[in-house]
Amino acid sequence: MLLKNRYRILHTLGQSVSGRTFLAIDEDQPSHPRCVIKQLFQPAVGDNIQSELAETNFYFPQRFHVAALLLDKLGQHPQIPELWASFEHDGCLYLVQQYIAGRSLAEELSEKGNFGETAIWQLLGELLPVLQLIHDSQLIHRDLKPENIIRRSHQAPFKKGRKGELTLVDFGAATPMNGSWPKTKVKVGSAEYAAPEQIKGAATNSSDLYSLGVICIYLLTGLSPFDLFDIKSDTWVWRDYLKVPVSDRLSRILDKMIQRDPMLRYQSATEALKDVKVKVCPTPIALGRSKQNWALTAWSAAAIAILSIALNPHLPSLSPQMGFKTSKSTAKIPDFRFSSPRLNDFTSQRSPNAPVRTLASTSGPVWSVAVIPNGRAVATGNTDGTIRLLHLCSGKLVRTMIGHSGAVWAVAVSPDGRAIASGGADNTIKLWDIYSGELIRTFYGHTAGVFSVAFSPDGKAIASVSKDKTVKLWQVETGIELETLKGHSAGIQSVAFTPNGEILATGSDDGTIKLWNWQTGELVRTLAGHTDAVWSVAVSPDGQTLASGSWDNTIKLWDLNTSESPQPNGYLLRTLNGHLDKVQSLAFSPDGQTLASGDLSGTIKLWQMGSGGLMGTLKGHSSWVEVAFSPRGKTLVSGSFDDTIKVWRLSP
User: Which of 143, 170, 468, 642 is catalytic?
Assistant: First the structure.
């Protein structure tokens, strides 16, 4: 593709509901330098009101023009890419910026492990002045995240930018601080790093400081910011996940940066930098007084650093990532067997007649739930890294499976009810014998936490999705990685097979759902319609309907197979509105007539699939909730961050 007969598009770097980013070559310049092109889509408006649409269409180019003028000036700074061009083409707006060669902080974390305190001091010392310059120019970045901070790999031409210097990139979401702009339904920035007021459409300069603070605690812990915030107590708990403690001074600075109340944060980057400089830039007098001690400490630190490097070599990736290269099936999966079950663990017990029961749980917050096919037990994934198997009627703890070194974010039960697959924050998937509780094998390959796992209908393959933006397919019997699917531009939160096993559906933080022919690697279709992250996808038992739950508080139903086409069509059937908080779990009843949905506030809603009407609301949880139906569909099981598992009797 040649844009404006000048910019040769090489490939896509990323995509979201608001735009796409490309790597390109400027063919008008003799040296054909690389550049980054940001394509911006027209924002969505609320309720399709004609006057609101006209207002948005009027202000969007104006805001873009103002932001481009500011970026043109800011591009003279060595830590901000130069703006080479800005223009409108075929109804889209484009920014063309200098390409910065190097590695992002996200890549550094993946390759080298958690950052130390010294690296965080350096990061703050380098980036806070850049943020102050941006804010002084009346611009808000609005998309600070590890992927948008690049460490230069070489000296820039004409001495603009030093090797190893941190550079702030991707100003596609930047907006002028002043001006009366209409709010849109499109949420900008990454949900993990965006400040609460920014998610509501009211970003300020302190919103960027919040994002930078969250980046720091992520780099220190290596865990998703979602895991570092305790919803139950409404507080950050990042210190609990530090492998090496940090100083009280750094802790106080970071705590102030990530205050959820904007008024309690630093009000400017300059204010934050004053506290940082006490650590990063000691006065000449202080240096003179401690010169001898400093020299001794430096030599000691160097010796310790050399010893640490020698004893802790960086381990290479365990599994290369390969793409599909053929239209024929590549997933040849043999039959497999698990050990014979001991049914005495699941002897039938009389069930109480209460409409809702709470099962005893002492494992802390529950991340995921799955009911075994015989309907007698429920498996839960827990924050403490365990999988617990509870008798559904009595609440008795059948067994505990221990093996993950981090929270268990996902559990799934094989179709024959003999195995459990679990995915966790430790980047691994584990396979367990459900009757003995023994670990069968561990699947390595993801470079970030595993958000969701699913068995293929024949039980011979496992699909896993991760924060590393990939979908991986595994052979159950051998643990071999069959293939890796790439296409989402952000972390992938949920995965589900269609009942015939032909199609795999994935929902992502980039706001889209993708349908894959997983055995050939073909991306069949991308479904776009949500305005925020898609945290759950579920397929109806007849394979005709896909449900998606999003952080935009809605559920969308998609037609997977219309009469006009044998392939998944992706036609939007309807949108279900009713949740007042982010929807993050979905489950179809076995007969396909009911859809259960759970949100971040702990509310569960039941929807009638024929009409899309709301059948009822279940209240009992106080926080984040996951839902799963029993095989007969008469009961619903829910696990929550409020430390409880509840069983709801839906019919006699």
Answer: 143
